[in-house]
Amino acid sequence: MSWTKASAPFFSELQTNLINTMKKITLAASLFSLFLFTVSAGAQSIRLSNVDWSIFAQPGKHANISVVTEGSDKGQIDFTATPVQENTYFGIFHSVPCKTGATIHFECSAKAIKVMEQCTGHMYIEWKDADGAEIERERGPSMSENLSLTDASKLEMSAQAPAKAVTATLVINMEVSGPGSANGVFRIQSISFK
After folding, report:
1. Within this chain, do residues 142 and 105 fall inside the same structural domain, yes or no?
2. Which residues form the domain of 13?
3. Given 3-state DSSP classes, what are the helix, strand and coil percentages for the chain, each rounded to the nearest 5?
4. Do 59 and 82 reside in the same domain of the chain?
5. What average pLDDT does the segment 151-177 reach?
6. Cβ–Cβ under 8 Å, residues 138 and 128
7. pLDDT band per the 50, 70, 90 thresholds, residue 32
8. For residue 94, what are the contacts with CB-CB under 8 A and spacing of at least 6?
9. What is the Cα 38 distance to its own chain's centre?
10. Bigger pLDDT: 141 vs 51
11. Is residue 161 predicted with pLDDT exceeding 80?
C-alpha cells in the first residue's frame, strides 16, 4: 500500500482530532486533581500562606482534607468528618527550630462550612528535643460547634519552649469520634506563626 498526496488531508484531520482529545483529557485530569484532594497518610503537603504544611493521618486511615484554594500567598483547606471515619484523626503540621525559653505564637482563621457533630478540630504545639522525641504538647483552641457558619474566627495560642526543646511542631487536626454519626466541615482560611 502506498500513501499519496490525497491521503494528507485525512491524516492532518486525524492528527488535529488526536491533539484536541489529548487536551481534553489533560484538562479533565487537572480539574479532577483540583477538586478531589483527599489524601492518605504519607509525604503529602499543601502550601498555605507561603509555608509548606505536611499532611498526616492515623496509620491505615485517610486524611479527609480538601484544597479550596492553594497558593503561596493564601491557601484554604477544608477538614471534613464523615460517619465512616469514626474514631480517627488527621491534620497538617509544620516544624520550626526553636530555643529553650523562646515563645512561639500560632494563629489561624477558621469557620464552619457544615455544623460540627461528633468531631473537633484542635491547634497545638509539640515541643521536641534534638533526637525528635516529644518533650511536651501545648494544646490551644478547639474548633467544634462554637465555629460560626457565617464569619471566620481568629484562633490563637502562645507557648514557651521548655528545656531541651529544639523544634516546635505546629499542628491543626480533626479528631472524629462516633459511633456512626460524625459529621462536619471546618475551613482554615489563613494561618501564621512567629
Report:
1. yes
2. 1-36
3. 20, 50, 30
4. yes
5. 90
6. no
7. very low
8. 51, 52, 53, 54, 169, 170, 193
9. 9
10. 141
11. yes
Same domain, 29 and 73: no
First to last CA, the chain: 73
* Beta strands across the sheet bearing 65-69: 65-69, 76-81, 183-193, 103-117, 153-160
* Co-location of 11 and 45 in the same domain: no
Please answer whether residues 120 and 142 qualify as being in contact, where contact means their C-beta atoms are separated by less than 8 angstroms: yes
For residue 190, CA distances in Å to 157, 165, 177 come to 15, 27, 26
Mean pLDDT in residue range 103-111:
88
Q: pLDDT band at 159, cuts 50/70/90? A: very high
Domain CATH for 134: 2.60.120.260
Q: Are residues 32 and 119 in the same domain?
A: no
113: CB partners within 8 A, 6+ apart: 78, 149, 185, 186, 187
Determine what percent of the chain is predicted with pLDDT higher than 70. 68
Bridging pattern class, strands 51-57 and 44-48: antiparallel
N residues, the chain:
194
Peptide bond into 179 cis (omega under 30): yes
d(CA 116, CA 143): 8
pLDDT at 50: 73
Give the three-class secondary structure for 24. Answer: helix
Same domain for 47 and 27: no
